[in-house]
Amino acid sequence: MKKSREYVITTENTCDMPYSFYEENGVEYSYLPCTMGDIVYNKENDIDPKEFYDRMRNGTMPTTSQVNIEDAKKLWRPILEKGYDILHLSFSSGLSGTYNNCFLAAKELMEENSQYKILVVDTLCASMGQGLLLWKALEQKREGRSIDETASWVEYHKKNLCHVFTVDDLMHLHRGGRVSKVSAVLGTVINVKPMLHVDDEGHLILLSKERGRKRALQSLVSMMDERLGSYRDKNDVIYISHGDCEEDALYVKNLLQKKYASIKKIEINTIGSTIGAHAGPGTVAMFFMGDQR
Q: What is the band of 171 on the pLDDT scale with cuts at 50, 70, 90?
């Protein structure tokens, strides 16, 4: 019988987790490049979030690229050569071709060496939703689950990872092909704030519109309440990400703390350039476990 090898969990920067998180948990990640003006930002040359969003506000529009097959192989080869198997949690296939490229890269590497084992999971998640699923997978690993057991847990629970968010301007999402022109135009009305979620196929879906920013932020908590179901008292950790609007994220955090005593930790982080290029400044997103998305 083939001896079971130790494994590591890898992902992409689309998790929008603090860089310290990856270091502390031994997580290697690929970076979806972001081009702004004539500069390509990547893992070795990242852009300060404040500068990134200020440039967007001043009219400089970024573009992003997916992780290609060679990028994925470059991430994994050193890990495999050290004798580890790999569980890779990939950015939603409903938003990027990254998952498919990672799947193909894994297949090619395993064909090169039959000792290699790489499991690639399409998380159907984005931003700190992908990050929260990563955290949950790391918990499974810490509890002694095998690579197959952890992968199975993620596959089974990934559609319980709920994403609800509001944006200031839907045209950023339309420009990147994430929502239709009709949805973008309907959502771009003076003082009307779009409310969106990520569906079971990992796509961004416009659900409704709220009049005014404060009502939109309050609506995030209502949207969470509708989705919790059997997870109502089981969410010990909630993640909130934002597009350079920390005060709004803190306002939502305060609402959550008042409403849910069972939540032990609420983590806030800025949305990175890859996701921010499509969501834009002023985005506030909330991620939690619920019965359905």
A: confident
Rounded (10°) angle between helices 98-112 and 69-81: 40
Query: What pLDDT was estimated at residue 16?
Result: 98
Q: Which of 158, 181, 210 is the last residue of a domain?
A: 158
Q: In which domain, by residue range, is 196 found?
A: 160-289
* 39 Ramachandran zone, left/alpha/beta (phi>0; psi -120 to 50): beta
Please name the amino acid found at residue 44. Answer: E
| Residue 263: partners with Cβ closer than 8 Å, 6 or more residues away | 235, 236, 237, 238, 256, 257
**Contacting residues for 25 by C-beta, under 8 A, at least 6 apart:** 138
pLDDT(2) > 60:
no
Whether 18 has a pLDDT exceeding 50, the answer reads: yes
Cβ neighbours of residue 93 closer than 8 Å, sequence gap 6 or more? 99, 100, 122, 124, 202
pLDDT of residue 105: 98
Tell me: do 101 and 164 sit in the same domain: no
Residue 208 phi/psi, 5-degree rounding, is -165, 180
Alpha carbon distance 243, 11 (integer Å): 21
Mean per-residue pLDDT of the chain: 93
